[in-house]
Amino acid sequence: MATLRAQRRAELTDRILDAAQAQLLEVGPAALSLRAVARDVGVTVSGLYRYYAGRDDLLTALLVRAFDDHADAVQDAVEGAEPDLSGQDDDGDRLAPVRAGLLAYRRWGLENPTPFGLAYGTPVPGYAAPADETVRAGARCGDLLVAAVARGRARSGAAAGHDGGDDLDPARRAHLKALASRRGYDLPPGVLARTVDLFVVVHGFVVMDVFGQLRPLSDNPDRDFAALVDRGLDTLR
Amino acid sequence: MATLRAQRRAELTDRILDAAQAQLLEVGPAALSLRAVARDVGVTVSGLYRYYAGRDDLLTALLVRAFDDHADAVQDAVEGAEPDLSGQDDDGDRLAPVRAGLLAYRRWGLENPTPFGLAYGTPVPGYAAPADETVRAGARCGDLLVAAVARGRARSGAAAGHDGGDDLDPARRAHLKALASRRGYDLPPGVLARTVDLFVVVHGFVVMDVFGQLRPLSDNPDRDFAALVDRGLDTLR
DNA sequence: AGAAGTCAAGAGCAGTGTTCTCGAAGTGAG
DNA sequence: CTCACTTCGAGAACACTGCTCTTGACTTCT
Q1: How far is CA A95 from CA A98, A143, A199, B126, B200, in A?
Q2: Does domain A64-234 have CATH number 3.30.450.20?
Q3: pLDDT tens digit string along B37-57?
Q4: B229 contacts in A (CB within 8 Å)?
Q5: DSSP string, B24-91
Q6: A72-81, A89-98, A176-185, B156-165: least confidently modelled range
Q7: D15 C1' – B33 CA distance, angstroms?
Q8: Is 2.50.20 the CATH classification of the domain at A1-52?
Q9: Which residues of B touch A213 (CB under 8 A)?
Q10: Residue A47, CB, less than 7 Å from strand D?
Q11: Which of A75, A226, B12, B214 would staple B208 via disulfide (CB 3.0–4.6 Å)?
């Protein structure tokens, strides 16, 4: 019954992370100051070390939260675009949830450039994000999209064996099959290959967009991104 | 005739930048320490301020150098793959220089992850790179590739008016025409659109590759990147 | 040779992450 | 209720950081 102490501890841990997040949004990850965080929370710097092992530990927590928030946004969008289970109103695009997810993927990045940069940008120097954490969290978006593609194809009655990716490089085909079985993806290798390709293109576009490197190339990223996504979805039918 | 002094000044300016570059490779941009640079060069910290206005100024110099080195690598590759002017030995792929440039684009990133991250990754917090510098330097790679595409098409005798991009979004078509005339690109809008698309895809792939986010998705990035480039080049013929 | 400009050096300021110690507070067993 | 035990917050201290300012020596030009 470690109620009082444990409860206080949980509360303060959260408050510290919130303050760190607020500061992250203001000054960026590299300028994140433990002293400023401590001041905001109302604790001494040393007291802060009771809750996080150090600056790196705090950064890791922020990174994980960024990944989770991003995946949450994508998940919400995908689920929101999923057709009714009742079966009616199913004459729309079978891949609409995928499109919604990809648009949300970009939107979250544009609306949260700092966490996005922390998660997908240059690693903060002197700080190596724990690989398992980033892989785990980063894979969530991929899983969501693959699942949405699979559901969409199932609804349109696509043959499971169709497009096994016979034109694929054999080694890549083998890798994709392994990836599918490892993560429980229900897609034939050919479709999975094009889904991965689409994901890479989308991520690349979003990275350039969020980091401001797209401006000379596009006067209207919204329009060009939508076209890019639609082109990619066309290859998945 | 400020020879002696000016010469010393130029030398020391270079040596400082070299030391900063060396330190950048070791500890990353955010941890770049003026004191350590000064120690390496053999000057005091305050003396360092005679040559660079501060940390930001030094970072900018490193950023510009990174962009230039990257574009140099691409340029070398493109020129190295250009066919002889004598006209013989011209039975190869007309777009081989483009391919060589794109492969070099990625190779440089993989071999110089830290400068690549400084140039294309998350902006260093508290430090805003001068927009004109980054745009100017960043545009060089784009210019190189567009020029290589134009030369390749000219060699294969493509009609200048061919593929004006009639299927393009009118607004995007107008923007591309403006971009072409502004930067002197000799490509019809349709081809330019697909060149830009290819560049975005390539950059996105390279970013994920260099930052280590591609690993779960590809067991052999070399192979997948080559396939991606070839697919893109096919759309440019 | 003397005036003007440039330079390196050092001290100092305000800030950083991290470690340590010390006394107060909460916790659970007897 | 008491007592050992753990946890906690605070403060001081250490070794750093970027940056500013002053001082005295050096180079260049008139």
Answers
A1: 5, 15, 14, 41, 24
A2: no
A3: 999 999 999 999 999 999 989
A4: none
A5: HHHH-STT--HHHHHHHHT--HHHHTTTSSSHHHHHHHHHHHHHHHHHHHHHHHHHHHSPPTTS-S--
A6: B156-165
A7: 14
A8: no
A9: 120, 138, 203
A10: yes
A11: B214
Q: Do A121 and B227 touch (CB under 8 A)?
A: no
Instruction: Determine whether the distance from the CB of B48 to the nearest atom of strand D is below 7 Å.
Output: no
Instruction: Name the residue in chain B with its Cα closest to that of A132.
Output: B216
Structure tokens at B84: 């002889």
- Contact between B23 and B40 under an 8 Å Cβ cutoff? The reply is yes
Please state, in angstroms and rounded to a whole number, the distance separating the CA atoms of residues B44 and A96: 62
Q: Residue A113 pLDDT more than 80?
A: yes
Q: Which chain D positions have some atom within 7 A of a protein CB? A: 7-13, 16-22, 27-29
Q: Tell me the fold of B65-234.
A: Tetracycline Repressor; domain 2 (1.10.357)
Distance CA A23, CA B233 (A): 45
ipTM at complex level? 0.89
The predicted-structure confidence for A130-161, as pLDDT tens digits, reads as follows 777 777 777 899 999 999 999 999 888 776 66
User: How far is C-alpha B197 from the chain's CA centre?
Assistant: 16
Q: Is pLDDT above 60 for A223?
A: yes
Q: Which residues contact A199 (CB under 8 A, 6 or more apart)?
A: A142, A145, B217
Nearest chain B CA: its distance from A6 CA (Å)? 35
Rg (CA), chain B: 21
Measured CA to C1', the nucleotide nearest B48 is C8
Residues written for chain B? 237
* Chain B residues lying within 8 Å of A214, measured CB to CB: 200
What is the residue extent of each domain of chain A?
Answer: 1-52, 64-234
